[in-house]
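User: I'm preparing a small set of examples for a lab meeting where we compare how different chains pack in three dimensions. I only have the primary sequence for this one, and I'd like the structure in C-alpha cell form so I can line it up with the others. Please keep the answer compact; I'll paste it straight into my notes.
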Amino acid sequence: MTAVLAAEQSESLPSSQSVLESVFGYQEFRPGQQEVIDSAIAGNDGLVIMPTGGGKSLCYQIPALVRPGVTLVISPLISLMKDQVDQLKADGVAAECINSTQSREALIDIYRRMNSGQIKLVYVSPERVLMHDFIERLEHIELSMIAVDEAHCISQWGTTFALSMPHSVD
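Assistant: Understood. Below is the C-alpha cell output for the 170-residue chain.
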C-alpha cells in the first residue's frame, strides 16, 4: 500500500486484517489487539495498557488507516515521533510529525497536506497540541481520532495539559 493509497478516503474502507497484513506484514493480531482495534474503528474511546513491545501502536495506527480523516498522535519525545513516522513511511503510510526542529516551510507543507487529506497520521508534542494556532488548524480538517502515546507521561506534562485536552477535542 503506498502512502498515497493509505491517505485516500474511499467508500470501501479496508479491513483491519487487510491493513495488518498489507501494511505491517503481520498475519495475526497479538492477544487483545483485535478487540481494541475494533472498538477504535467503531469510534469508541479507550485506554490501552500493554507491556512494552505488546503492540500498542498498532491499536491506533490500524484504525487510523481504516477510518476516514486524520489521526492525531500526541507523543512526548521528538525522537520517538521520528522513529514512528520513519517506520510508517517505510511501510507506505502517509504520516508526518510536527515539532520544533522543523522549518516554517516544512510545517506549512505538512499543514497543506493535512488539509487536503494526504496525511493519515500526524504526531505532535503535548506542547504543540495546546498551541492556539495549532488548535485552529485542527478545526479545518476531518479529525478521525486522537491517540496519546506514552500516556504515562501525562502526569509529567502536568495538570494544564490534562485539563486542556477535553477542550481541545471539542
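A couple of notes for your slides: The chain has ten helices and four strands. The two ends are 32 Å apart (CA to CA).

User: Perfect, thanks.
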